[in-house]
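Example 3.2
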Amino acid sequence: MQFKNGALAAFAVVSASAQSLTSVLTSNPDLSNLTSYVSLFPNLLSTLGNATNITLLAPSNAAFTTLLSSPQAAGLSNSSIQAILEYHVLQGTIPASAITSTPTFAKSSLTDPAFANVTGGQAVEALTLGNQTVFLSGLLQQSNVTQANLNFTGGVIHIIDSVLTVPENISTTAVTAGLTSVAGALTDAGLVETVDTLKDITVFAPTNAAFQAIGSATGNLTMSQLAGILEYHVINGTVAYSTSLTDGMSVPSLGGPSLTIKISNGTVFVNNAKVVIPNVLVANGVVHVIDQVLNPNATSATANPTASTQTVAFSGASSATDVPFTSGIVAPVSTATAVVTSAGGASASASGSATPSAGGANAPMVTGAMGMAALFGAGAMVMNI
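Structure, written as tokens:
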């Protein structure tokens, strides 16, 4: 995680008169909901009470109201609510001045393997969009900073206008994001459990249009052949955010053959495909949406950066009327779906991020029967952090 040079050093000296976290939270009426939620989890209270060098992303009362009014709120369990709160605690003191238009990926305190299968804690993307400092979470949920740099003895607090979305597994994210061909193909190939449980992975996920463009080649694929194609889209053991990709990089895929990264004028390509939506965070890594299906039998296929569309890597393939592998896959209507399916020909910058969704709190990891409303009605413990 790299932030603006000198910013962290300048911020490291905390005044002897700096307030405790308890004092800052309780003195800000717009954080009363957060204060109540954190008080419900003794382990989290203890962690925050002893923590130093952290950044707390603090959802406003309105942010929690939005989440509570969503249809998914009633299904959130105790463990998922604690996971949400832990996801808002970032490792390292990150002042707003350290965040720039180049995305950075800060590790959070969310390490519970039921929610995060990445080394060092689940990440949150930080960047500026114009004059706005934002944090992006699962399903490209955008949380805007409404008040920055509330100092306390253990670090800094930024108040945000929406609750972060804990990244879900790849198969669920694919369906929610409208990548129904990917979801269906993983099911047909028997790879859902594999991609959902591997630790630290990068997936290049073709759009539905990409699969449709080679539709004639998909009908007669055996299960093994389909699995080989899909495994060629996965890098195992490495979470490669867009800022980690470099021109000329060659990385082995899960299936064996290597993938070649090309960067031209800031646009990222992998083999013959262009990254159209970068950095979709998932429970076990990151997904980059691409505009072509990669072919493990055509590893030399390369992109033409000046072309408006790239050439398919499957010789003789033609487009199909129906979108392959989507039978029985129903994508819910969501903000994330609009983001991915509206990407069109937009390219993703190696040092930037596609415009994410704004507003609306997508429910993270909906499980269990105990709702946030029920918890919020419970009596809060006395905070001492």
